[in-house]
Structure formats: C-alpha cells, structure tokens
Structures
1.
Amino acid sequence: MHLLSSSFIVLLFLLMSSSSLLRTVSGLDAVLGQYGETLEIPCNNGVVKADDVLLIKWKYDKGEGLSGDLLVKQKNQNLSIIASDEYKGRVNMASNASLLLSSSTLRDQRTFTCMVVAGADIAEYPVNVLISKTPAVLEISDKAEELEIGKVMKLGTCVAKDAHPAANITWLKNNKPLESDGKRVSVVVSEQVDPLSGLFTTSSTLKYSAEKEDADAEFSCTSESVGQRSSAVTFTITYSTENIVLEVLSQDPLVEGDNVTLKCVADGNPAPTSFTFHLKGETVKVENTDTFTIINVSRETSGEYRCSLINKPELQASENVLVHYLDVTLNPSGSVVKKAGEDVNVSLLIEASGETVVSWTKDKIKLDKEPEFTALTFSHSGLYESKVTMGQLSRDASFQLRVQGAPVITQLSKQRGEDGQHKVLTCEAEGFPEPAVSWSINGSSPEEQSSFIDGKISHRLTVVPSVNLTVFCTVVNQFGSDSKSITVSSYQSEDKGQMKMAVGVVVGLLLATMVVALIYGLYVKKSKQGSWKTGEENGSSEEEKKLEEKLEEKVEESSQKAEV
Ligand SMILES: *[C@@H]1O[C@H](CO)[C@@H](O)[C@H](O)[C@H]1NC(C)=O
Ligand SMILES: *[C@@H]1O[C@H](CO)[C@@H](O)[C@H](O)[C@H]1NC(C)=O
Ligand SMILES: *[C@@H]1O[C@H](CO)[C@@H](O)[C@H](O)[C@H]1NC(C)=O
Ligand SMILES: *[C@@H]1O[C@H](CO)[C@@H](O)[C@H](O)[C@H]1NC(C)=O
Ligand SMILES: *[C@@H]1O[C@H](CO)[C@@H](O)[C@H](O)[C@H]1NC(C)=O
Ligand SMILES: *[C@@H]1O[C@H](CO)[C@@H](O)[C@H](O)[C@H]1NC(C)=O
Ligand SMILES: *[C@@H]1O[C@H](CO)[C@@H](O)[C@H](O)[C@H]1NC(C)=O
Ligand SMILES: *[C@@H]1O[C@H](CO)[C@@H](O)[C@H](O)[C@H]1NC(C)=O
C-alpha cells in the first residue's frame, strides 16, 4: 500500500512538473520567525483546506535550483512526512495546510513552497522565511570602578549576545540617548558572528568624560529595535579638591578662656582626610579629621590662621580669629573710708578689644558722669558702681565710700507737742561713725528715738519745762564733738528756730505785735459768732492762751536774736 502510494506520488509529480496547468502565485509571501521557536508557514495565507484538495505538498528551496520535499497530504489519506535531511522530525502540517517548522534556525531562511492540487488546477505558493532573534538580556560588563571628572574613561561595555539581525546598541544617560561627539562621549562597536548559529554578538564600549552632576546619573544601554534594555548602573564620581575654606567655630563673642575650633572644609571626592593647619608660625598636621581646636584662647591668640591639604599645599584657605577681651580696673575698689574734706581720685582703667561704654550709679541711682571727689562731705558716702560694656560683654566694678569725721549739728529745733503741754526738741547732726547724742536735761524720747542714715542722725527729746531753760544738744564720736543750745520757755510756745537775723529785730517785733493784735481782734469777733472751733477746745480762754503764747514767743525770739 505504501509502495503504491509512493509510486503514485512520484507519477503525479512527473505529471505536474510538465503540466501546463501549473501556476506559481506571483509575489513572494514572507514570514518572519523567531529563532528556536516553531514557525508556522501558511499556505496561500491559510485559505486552503486540506480536506478539499486532492493533494498538498510542502517543499523547500535547497539552492542551486534544487528543491527538497518535506511532506505531502493526499485527500483521505494520512499526512506523509517525507523529509529526510535536516527537516526530518521538525516538520508537520496544520489542518489549514500551514507548514509547522519547529526549532527554527537561521538556516531556515529560505523559500518554502506549498503546492496545492485541486481538480485539474495545480498551484504553488512560495513563502520566504526570515528568522530573527532578539539578543539575550543586555548586560553592561567591564564597568568602571569610578569616574574621574574631566577624564575620558572607559565606562563599560554593553553586550547584546546572540542576536539576528545584529543588535543596534544605544547608550543612555538618565534615559536619554548619549550622542557620540568624539570628545566627551565616544562609542566603539564590535560585532562577532557565531560560526555555528550565525547569530551576532554586538559589543558597544562607551568612553565617557564625567562631570560633577554625574554622581547620581544612571547609565544603561538599549537595543531599541528589539525593546531590550540593560539594568542601570551608577558610578562614584571622583574629583580632586578645587575649593578649600577655613571655618572658625566658636562662641560669639569669642572671649579669653574659650575654645576655638578651626575647620578646614575642602571639596573633592573622595574628600581629603588630612590637613595642615598653620597657626601663626606653627604648623600642625591632622589626619582623619578636618578640625583643630585651640583651647583656652587669650588675646594673643588673635590673628590669621590658614589651612591647606597635606598633598596639595598650594591650595590654602585663611581666616582671622579675633579674641575679645575687656579688662576693667577700678581704683579705689572695695570698701573705702575717708575723712571729710579729703580728696579721692577715682580711676577706671579699661583694656578692651573694642569700643566700650561706661555707666555709673550711686546707691543704684544713675549718675551722669564718673564721680569726682574734692573735699569729701558726708553725703558723698555711698555705693558707687560702674558698668563697662563692649557689645555683649560687660564688666562691673564698684567701691563703697564711707566719709568719716567729727559730727556737726545741722539743726536744733523745738516744736510744740500735739497736746500743747510738752515740747519736742529735735537735734539733727551729720558725722561718721554714728555720733552719740546727749541732752543737757532729762526728758522722754519718742519711740523712734534716733535714726542714722547716710551719716545723718536725728534725735528727738520730749520735755515739759516748768522753768525757762537753755537746753544743750551735744553730739560726739571718736573724731570730735559739737554742741548747740536752744531756749525753752516754761510757757508752752513755739519756736520757729530761726535766729539768724539780728538786724531789724525791733521793727519785726513791732510789726508782729501789730499783726497779732489785728488777728486777735478778728478772732474775737469770729469766736463770738461761734463758727470754727473744734469740740475739744475749751472756749475762748484756751485760744487766748495760745495767742498770748505766740506773742510771748515773738518777744522771746527777738530777745534771743538780740543776744546773737
Ligand atoms: C492554521 O491553523 C493553526 C492551528 O491549527 C493556526 O494557529 C493558524 O493561525 C492557522 N493559520 C491561518 C493562516 O489561518
Ligand atoms: C491513518 O493512520 C491511522 C493511525 O495513525 C491508521 O489507523 C489508519 O489506518 C491510517 N489510514 C490510512 C489510510 O493509512
Ligand atoms: C542604529 O540606531 C541608530 C540610531 O538609533 C541609527 O541611526 C542607525 O541607523 C541604526 N543602525 C542600524 C544598523 O540599524
Ligand atoms: C575647652 O576644651 C577643654 C578640653 O576639651 C574643656 O575641658 C573645656 O571645658 C573647654 N572650655 C570651654 C569654655 O568650652
Ligand atoms: C588659660 O590660660 C590662662 C593664661 O592665658 C591661664 O592663666 C589659665 O589658667 C588657663 N586656664 C585653663 C583652664 O587652662
Ligand atoms: C589725686 O590726683 C592728684 C593729681 O592728679 C594728686 O595731686 C593727688 O595727690 C591725688 N590724690 C590722692 C588722694 O591720690
Ligand atoms: C536727770 O536724771 C538723773 C537720774 O535719772 C539725775 O541724776 C540727774 O540729776 C538729772 N539731771 C537733770 C539735769 O535734771
Ligand atoms: C521766762 O522768760 C520770760 C521771758 O524770757 C519771762 O517773761 C518769764 O518771766 C520767765 N519765767 C520764769 C519762770 O522765769
């Protein structure tokens, strides 16, 4: 049976070859297949139905005018594969007459023809087969360790392995194509063909001159035509130091006793790690740090400082260090005791690194100017404080001045007591240390018997005199004493204590008498109307007594004045 059919086919072939009915479809169809995969080569674009035709045969162009048979299918017969060469075991036919070619290689790039016999009609449909292969994953090899700025270096090689046709490699930086310009960017491409498979391996080497901004740049390569792309790579960008700055790290203001840190800031990648600090004549080398600290600075520390790279000494930075200082010497200082009438020379010596402002206070009250003392008085006593400021710095200095001397009575006065029965004598004196006050008569003293403030003392004595008295107040301390007298009349009276005018006493007395008489007249008149008396007072006799007293006082006063 098999033999029979074979001979039938051969017969048919001979017939067909010579048949005038044979027609070849003009215009070659082309099919693109993927390398290694099963390729479907359609017969007459798939419009053929194997069951409808008498015979379908697939053959291929062996070259040099020869053709090789692959398979044949007769109506109502099983498919017969007749391929004997490289296609043995690789061919099959689909029900729509397509030739199925498995494990396609580049050698399959030839013309396959499907011959269809339907009735008396014999047609041939040649199909051109092209095989392509996308390269294996694109890879960047020979990647540079790091890129040095401004130096053309081989960045890496992008390899597109086993491709057909050969891959066209484009380099990308941050997803943008890098155009070869022959200077900063240049690309060298090489291609290799595998003699066995005929596949191309393309290598594209990028030579590149990096810039500072390339520190984070992503480089990749792509074969656009087949949509392949390598993974991105980044590079450490190295560059030598170009800029160096000396920073002075210190408190503001920098004052004596502080520490100051010099910091040498230099660019470059990798950053420099060792520096030379030039400290006013002295040089110090530091490693693995960029700082140098000067401890406990003084005014002598002020000056210009520099730093440089150990391996590039010509690159230097400099900065000035200014140590502020404010020294104040006040003379006198502390507690100062002087005698009244003496001089005190006040001197405030200021040594400062800048402009200063001085202010003074005495007992916390601001003074207009520096205190000057010629012929000290007791009122000069007090706490003198000076404040010297310079920017944020300030210094305080002070002295406590105490003026000593024999006491002097400044005032001795008398005053009628509130009840009209007694008199209050007041003895005021100045002096330091506190003088002891004594009176020539006995009496009682009010609660706050005396006060001693700022070298001034005030002492009071309450007396109820039964006779006319001359009372002495005596003040005494280690430096001397003073004494003054005052006359106290037995009648209660007031003394204004003004006993200085000796001239015109008589005129004054007369005048006073007249005035008193006038007032008395008015008073009598008014009291009769009973208008402005307080309930406590006991009638006109009390008032009369008062007036009498006044009158008597005037007389007394004038007599005293006459005595002076
Ligand atoms: C022929 O049939 C195969 C499966 O049998 C199918 O994959 C292919 O698309 C068909 N070809 C055409 C041209 O219709
Ligand atoms: C076709 O093949 C099947 C099994 O593959 C076989 O049973 C059958 O006899 C064959 N037919 C012819 C006509 O050779
Ligand atoms: C490769 O690609 C570049 C740009 O994408 C194009 O100019 C060039 O013609 C291509 N070369 C090939 C062989 O396809
Ligand atoms: C200065 O540095 C020394 C040593 O590090 C430290 O003991 C001292 O407290 C520092 N002085 C100041 C004012 O910071
Ligand atoms: C700082 O230096 C001054 C002299 O410049 C010295 O008197 C002082 O003791 C020093 N202080 C410290 C903490 O070293
Ligand atoms: C104060 O200074 C003057 C001159 O400047 C001097 O004659 C006098 O003795 C000084 N007085 C004191 C108490 O130092
Ligand atoms: C004052 O009183 C004392 C006793 O308290 C007495 O010895 C003295 O004589 C009195 N002096 C006068 C002046 O009265
Ligand atoms: C007190 O002195 C006044 C005048 O100075 C006189 O009139 C009076 O009589 C005197 N009184 C006594 C008690 O001596």
Note: DSSP finds three helices and 40 strands in the chain.
2.
Amino acid sequence: MKYQSTRGISSESLSSAEIIKQGLARDGGLFIPEEIPTISLDEIKSLCSDSYPVRAAKILSKYLTDYSYDELLADCEAAYCEKSFPDGAAPLVKVHDNIHSLELWHGPTSAFKDMALQIMPRLLSRALVKTGEDRTALILVATSGDTGKAALEGYKDIDGIKIMVFYPVDGVSKVQKLQMVTQTGNNVNVCSINGNFDDAQSGVKVIFSDKDAEAYLNKRGYFFSSANSINWGRLAPQIVYYVSAYCDLLSSGEIELGDKINVCVPTGNFGNIFAAYLAKLMGLPIGKLICASNTNNILTDFLNSGRYDRNRDFHCTMSPSMDILISSNLERLLCFTAGKEKTNEYMKALADKGYYEVDCDVKSKIDENFKGYYADEASCAATIKTYFEKYGYLSDTHTAVALYSAEQYISDSGDNTPMIVASTASPYKFAADVCASLGHKKPEDDLDALALLKSVSGMEISYPLKDLDKREIRFNKTVDPKEMLDAVKDYLNA
Ligand SMILES: *Cc1c(COP(=O)(O)O)cnc(C)c1O
C-alpha cells in the first residue's frame, strides 16, 4: 500500500513508514492511501471473537503493509493494554432506544485523542528504523490543553523520540496544567510561555522553519517532527473503533450481520468522522455519517450549502476541542470526492479568499454520506441534563453536542437505524461545565468541580484525573515566546 498527497497531481508514492515520519506532504497536502482496502462481512464476523488489540492489528495491517502483523500486534497490545485502558479501549454503551455511545475516553488522559496517540508514537518509532533514520525525533507541540497531555502520555519512554510541549501560562485549566506539569517519563519536557495559544503555536512554527535550528539539531543527532492530527499515523487507528463497535452490536444481538448503522461524531478537525467514512468505504455497513458541530458551525453550513467560508466570528464554547474554523482533514474528503485538481483549487481559494464553494456533483456525492447538525450552548447544556435525568447517562460537553445532533437528525429524517454516537471525553474532563449544565453553580476551581460532579453523579472520577494535586510537579519553567528555541536547546543539552 502506497500513499500520495491530496494535492500533487502526479506526485510520488510513499510507504506508510515514510509518511508517518514525514507527516505533511511537501506540497502542503495530506497523505491518502492510493486505494481503499476492503473488509468483508465474514471478516467482520470473525473479528467479533477478537480482543480490541487484535481487531486493531488486523485492520491496521490492511493499511500499514510495510509493518509486519507481529509488529502491529505488539504495538496494539502495548497501546491498548489494560493498564492504560482499565475499562477496555472503546466500550459501547447502550443509552436509550437506538442510541449507543462509543466511549473513546477510557485511556490515560480521559479524552479520545488517546486512541490515536497511544499507538502513533510506536508506529513512528518503528518508522525511524524502517527508513534508516539514526537521529532522534524531537516532537514539538503547542497545546491549548488536551492535545499536549495526550501527546506526552503517548510519546513518553518511546525509543528514538523526545517530546517537548509548550502551553500558554494562563490559557489552560488548572486540571490541564496539573496533568502536564506532573508528567512522568524520561524523554519528556513541558514549558509554559507568557502568551496565548496562538503565540505558542506561532513560536513552534517559527522553530520548525528555522534553518539554523535545524542545523543545530542535526549536529547533535536530532530532527524536528510533529504530532499533528493530520498525520496518517493518527488517522488510521481511528478507523478501528467503528469496526469494533459494529462487532459489539453484532455480539449483543442489537443488529444482524449486514444491517446498517449510522454514526454521529462531534467534529473539530474532521479527523474522527473521516475515519468513520473510511470504515464505510472499506465495506462496513454504515448509512449516514452525522457531522456534529457546536456554535462554530462552519461544517454544518458547508454540508448544507456546499460553501466553506471561514470569514466568520470565532466562538469560545464549552466544547473547546471543537472550536475550530479550519477543519484540516476535510481536505481528504474533498480529494476523495472531487479529485486532486479541484482540491488544489479549493485549498488555494481558502488560503486566498477564506472560502470556496464545491461543484454540484461534488456536493451531491458528499450528501449521499454526510449530514451536518449543530448544537448551540443552551441545547448542549439541556442535553447533558436530560440525558442524566431521563436515561441516567452522564455525558461531557462534546458528546452532548453529538447526542443533540443525532436526535435532530433522527427527528428530521425518521431514520431509526441504530446510531453510534462517538463519545470523545470523560464528563470529568469538563467537570465545571457539566456541573453547571446539571443546574449547579459553576465551581470556579477545577478540582472542586471534580468533587462536586462525583457527589452529584455517584460516578467514579476517571483514573487519570484522580489525586492530581498529590503528584510531584516536575516542570515549572516559563519563557517568553521569543525564548522558546533557547528552552528547546536547554532541554537537549540538559
Ligand atoms: C479533538 C477532539 C474532538 C474533535 O475531533 P476531530 O478529529 O478533530 O474532529 C472532539 N472532542 C474532543 C473531546 C476532542 O478532544
């Protein structure tokens, strides 16, 4: 299996190890597989008796053909082990009627990014060996909170890699900060900056494109790499849990082999829902894919009108991981439906004018598979309350956006196909807003919010968020944005 860029008209074909190492294509495009492997109903049936790591290894082996099955199985077993996922990797919980919650947040940081970031570093580590790389990869991450912690947990103690995370000193929650500054592992470093998330992100970008910095690293046996969500190594593992959820519905007798399911995903960068689309293209019986957004509903508008227009206000919502105006992975969908030439045009228009409009035939192809809905803040809060009171199901703010969107779709369409709703964070990860949604006074302190939510719900606090204030603080350095490179050098020389 080889991969190409979404933009290059006659581009080179690369192996999966090469593209996992490289991340973004040289022409600025994203990597996509040259063909989509298939999964038959018989294969799906036989996966039912496999554990999650085995399901993952079997599905990944269809894409990562330059990795042996044994390598993939070893990595999947290490990534999705019981210690990291004590409640299982992706349990499916029946919420009510035909609505099932696919809980992707039982990993080491209580959010769904763990599903990819627990395995991708292992794939990268092998990619370095496979491509004959003898330098150490230095991963730099700018984070607004969640991605940084998930990356730290994923890369810690992985061979051939070091990771350094920058976060805005006053731009993350107390829980997020505690999670990062107490990070364990001997190849990790964390540094806060005097600035906001954009300052952190621009600072990392400047370092990545600094030729002197590159030479400095090279001389010491390092090269820069990123943990970006557009990396294929993060996307491929996300296909697995949709297939796995289908198997679980089969095993519990909710569906018969071959029956269709629908999927609803709380969407930011369009990675998670694109993985569900790939599962459908492979042959998993999926009907509709419901793309759920918050008040930043640029994708809802795009799916309704065919016009993607980022000339609009940005809103800070209680589902911050979906506060995004540029959904990078949408480029992959455009490439699949419109081809490379048009994708190039659209991306150029987006860069130049801030918008593009797809042709009618492209729009109707997208319509066959996708529907867009969104939940505003009030609907999100009301959904959290209703689901808790009526169904005894406690959801986080991101999942609530999807639950609301799924219901809107069902009432508009009358389509009662079993619906899998991707649940992307533990309710404890956004405890203060969940408490407020349930009708309590919003706690000002994050740690108080954890305790309040526990007493209100009676549900155990997710293990990664327990006793945060009792852990050893390992990192307390703060620098100005212009000193970020010096901080990197200090870390490497320490
Ligand atoms: C990242 C994230 C999302 C959005 O996922 P995408 O793949 O970017 O669409 C949704 N919910 C949570 C909690 C997240 O962390």
Note: Residues 92-112+233-459 form a domain with the Rossmann fold fold (CATH 3.40.50.1100).
3.
Amino acid sequence: MTSTEKDRQYLWHPYTQHKTAQPPITIIRGEGAMLWDENNKPYIDAIASWWVNPFGHSNRFIADAIYKQLTTLEHVLFGGFTHEPAIEVAEKLIEILPNNQQKIFFSDNGSTAVEVAIKVALQYFFNKGEKRTTIIAFEDAFHGDTFAAMAASGISFYTQAFQGMFIDVVRIPVPIKGKELESFNALKNVIENNICAGFIFEPLVQGAAGMVMYAPDALSTLIEICHKNGVLTIADEVMTGFGKTGKNFAMDYVKAQPDMMCLSKALTGGTIPMAITTFTQTLFDAFYSDDINKALFHGHTFTANPTGCAAALASIELLQKPEMQANIERVNQMHLQFQQKVKQHPKVKTTRVLGVIFALEIQSNSAESYYGSMRTKLYDFFIEKGVILRPVGNIVYILPPYIITNEQLQEVYTIIEEAIEMV
Ligand SMILES: *Cc1c(COP(=O)(O)O)cnc(C)c1O
C-alpha cells in the first residue's frame, strides 16, 4: 500500500470530514520555511504549521538542545520532583512576561492551558467561599477543543454537537474599530446580570476567527472593568505569544495586566507539545493553605517534561536574538508594503496587519461559511501552487515562520494576488 492508502486505512485526522476531503499530502522533510512531499514537491509553509513554528523546520539549535536533554534526563514525574529545565523556563518567562505574572503551571497543549486557567478562576472563588460560576468570552472566540475551552469558544462549527453540556459562558462583542462602546457596555451589563468569575480573551487578534483585530486601549478598558468588579481576566496568548504580534506577547501592548496567561504553540518552536498557564501571586496565594482541599488538583502525566522544557528554553533564546527580532520587523515591513499594494483592489474588502500576521478579506456576494466553497477553491489553488495557506471562509491570512526569506514571502504575495483574480 502507498502511504496515502495506509493513511486512509488507519487514520482519523482533525477537523476533517473524511468522506468529502481530499486525501492528505504526505510530507517527508522540512527545512526553514519549506516542506517537501513524497514526490519532492516543495511547499512554502506560510502559516508556520498552525502557528507553531517561528524559527523554521528542523531547526538545528533546538534539535541539539533536545538531543542533549534526551540523553541526560528525558523525563521525570513532576509530582514530588523538580528539575533545572523547568526552573529555568519559569525563571526566563517570569523575566519577560508582564511583571504581575509570578507563577508558572505546565501542561501539554493550548486547550489544557485554557482548561487550567478556567478551573483556577472557578476554584479561586470556591476557595474564598464565594460562588461565582459564569465565564465571559468574546463572540467567535477560539480557545481549544477540551470541554471548558470549547465552552468558551464561540465558533459554532466546533461546538454545536455539545450545546447544553457546557459551563456557563456569556458572550460579548469584540471591540473592533467603531464597536468599542458596544463591547464595553455589553461587558458591564453581563457583569451586572450574572455572577461572573472570569473573562477570557484572545488579546488583540482572534486567530481562528480569521485574524480579527482590535486595539490595545479597548482591551485595557475591558480588563479594567473586570478588575473593578472582581472578575478575573485570562489572556489566551496561545496563538499571539512569542513574537507574532511584533512584541514578545500581545499583552505587552496593553496597559492593564491580566490575572492569567495561556501559552503554547510557538513555546517550543514547533518541536514538542507543551503549554504553560501563568498566574499572579494573589491567585497562587488563594490556593496556599493548611487545607489540602484548597490545592489545585489538576495535572497531566507529562507535565513539565524536561525535553519539552529544553526545547522551550532554546526557542526563547532564539526569539530574543537580535537577528530574530530583525526578522520579525522585516516580515512586518513586507506585509505593510503588500497591504498598500492590495488594499485598493476592487475584490479586496479589508486588510489588516500586526507583527508577522497579515489578513485580507475577499469581497463575496454570499455569506461565506467557515469551510464553504470559496474556502475550498482558495485552499486547493494555494496547494497546487505550492503554498500552504488555510483560508477561513473568504479571509486569507499569512503567519509565516519569522525566518522566511524575502523571495519566499514575495512568492506567497504573488500567489495570493493570483488567487484574488481567480475567485
Ligand atoms: C490553537 C489555540 C488554542 C488551542 O491549542 P491546542 O494546542 O490546539 O489545544 C487555544 N487558544 C488559542 C488562541 C489558539 O489559537
């Protein structure tokens, strides 16, 4: 059997309707921003493989750090034991995170990072003897596919089969330009009419919704409203973290500070699944007690896996190198130039840029659904041309590895321009 036939025989892929989907492409090799399939056809990975890979595929620096750790201490349980790699990741992150973030909790993926944050928000009030159970989230939010994360997510595509089985979540509109007051008032209203524990949000950019962007000042106001009312705030930086927005974290643009942050995706440079939830000292203190019932009874077998920690340390080191920061700036400048070029095009409805993120909305007469016909046409066109882009409905976005070359990025732009003409 070919690998395609074997895949069909044995595998079940994420977000895939196997009856109608094209067979998956078998990738055999990656280097820098490029991937190659089994026929040696090259692809530019213009979305950094679901936003995890900023420093390039098969990165030697991270690989060497992983190998060294694998042959020293590959894993040890984190209950009752600790190790240098975990301590170093924590120390390093606390140095670069917003300065109120003081405690680091490890898990395995973005969804579990969110799951932990929501559980801590709920148990924080439980520990204080206060009953607060409602979580506030944005419309069209995406926070992951485990149950609490899914409850907080507002994209019905992912959640409709499970309606009625969720924790209480109330939604407010995103404060996009012109809708700020509506969003502020909705938040005040929700807080007044519910007993709210926390507000979870994707800071500045809603990734899965199609790179929907809003301003730092608006987010600051929302956080302040929460803090005035004793509602905990959770910045889900699983997508935006580690340089995507042009700064280490999207929250670096925002004056008000969150109570918790969720990190994953680029944390290990796309090598080993790992996630982190970070907390203020105040939150930690609410669990610190002679009463064992007040402890956080949450953990995963692979929590703080030393090999993952070594990958995270190497990734953070790469991120902080001046050459990498220059790459982020270079990609941003190229995006801004491309934006100037395409924004007047009659078929382009809107464009937006933040850091290495570029998004463009194509004019469309019908309401485009998430996995609708325009999306399929665009996706297939890009793949045929050797560029990996996953449009969301009629929104095409680029989120490349920071080390993508100017020539590769130019090719992505050219093919997007061709796609606009084609649809
Ligand atoms: C991808 C994502 C998640 C979920 O992460 P997984 O690792 O896929 O579980 C959560 N929040 C945001 C903002 C994300 O982009």
Note: The mean pLDDT is 96.
